[in-house]
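Task card 7
Instruction: Convert sequence to structure tokens.
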Amino acid sequence: MKNLFFHFGLKAELQRPAAAGSCHNCHAEVSTTYCGECGQKAKVHIASAHEFLHHFVGHYIAAEGKLWRTLGWLIAKPGQLTVEFIRGRRGQFIDPLRLLLTVSLLAFLVMKWEVYRLPAAPVAPVSAQAAVVATAATAATARKVHQADGWLFDIFARASDKFAGNYGNYVAQPEPVQAAQFWEAWLRFGPTVVLCLIPLMAAVLKLLHLGSGWRYGEHLVFAMHFQTVTFLALLLTVGGMPGAIKPLLGSALGLYILLAMRKVYGGGWIVLLLRTVTFGYCLVMSFEVLVRIAFLLRMA
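Output:
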């Protein structure tokens, strides 16, 4: 009974594997670095805190020399990095998923920090009557804010009893207040929306190139590379952006898509322009709808 209540647990040495000439996983005889039966390392080792940190930085955040070369190619040579990966020349570059996760992690951290630095979003007092009036003309009032809100309102109103009142309070606010609240929501949800767009982008590219033999996974590589560029562009929006810069940034991303698709998929300029415009339109519309959904979810 004493051991049951006052036992301090096993010593660490009793849980660690003893040195042996056999594999700790499948118990086969091992004379080399790796087990010939299951492939596990013969010598097992629990990394220290320093080793864990080094492994995380070096292998998951991609903080190494290849990162700068990869980013240079990604920005200066639209589409070329995708071509290199598809053709199998991968040793000197960061693979698309690691690159995306590295840049997206940076974007998440920067934009989350920006959220905490923002002053509290102003909220003007709204009378109950004003909220009712704003909520009454659901579709008409919603479309004054954004075209997608008309049908999104109906969906959220059915799902949540609180949504109509919260939405009415939002619509009744002055436009500067609405803009401040939406900007805060964008900083919170923008990077997540960009990540959600990747499989959708690959699906659109697959449809645009039906019959050409391109696989979905190859379109996915293109989408990951482009969304990495988008994350880099998002970082330029932190702290607000002058109105004159937004069209320039949008035009630059549009030109980037055109040049990248030309490099990867080829084709005549007319067909290429049609594919690029269709792809860009689907991307922008999907992006706007997802951002609105993320914003409106806060009111449900």
